[in-house]
Write a structure and sequence with these properties.
Shape: elongated
CATH topology of one domain: hypothetical protein PF0899 fold
CATH class of one domain: Alpha Beta
Bound molecules: zinc ion
Radius of gyration: 18 Å
Largest sheet: 3 strands, mixed
Distance between the termini: 32 Å
Length: 114
């Protein structure tokens, strides 16, 4: 994954939200929802975030990550199961006709300003 491009997106969203709170609002915390299936490394995001927000009121904010499990839905029998990083085969009926229904999330859930 391209953590740098993703972080740029996050910074844009945070900056926009921050401006909504006022010109001088200082960002203290950012909560990011991150799907396990994105394989994005939170430490990389933290690293780029610090780099990209240098000398802005967003710098130094605490980044909190809410990891969303990868859930797969079986179209064969209708069961939902957690993806175990090995296969998309349904553990109930053995069907391979499955869809990822969560785990791809990557969004800014909330920000805190002071
Ligand atoms: Zn099934």
């Amino acid at each position: 994954m391209h953590e740098m491009a993703i972080t740029q997106e996050i910074v844009n969203v945070v900056d926009e939200a921050r401006l909504g709170a006022g010109e001088n609002a200082q960002v203290v915390k950012v909560v990011i929802q991150i799907g396990k299936f994105t394989a994005v490394v939170p430490d990389c995001i933290k690293f780029y975030y610090d780099m990209m927000t240098e000398n802005t009121p967003m710098h130094g904010a605490e980044l909190e990550f809410n990891v969303v499990q990868t859930v797969v839905h079986c179209k064969g029998c209708g069961v939902d199961f957690e993806f175990e990083e090995v296969s998309f085969i349904c553990p109930e009926c053995g069907s391979g006709d499955t869809d990822i229904i969560s785990g791809r999330e990557l969004l800014v859930e909330s920000i805190e300003v002071s």
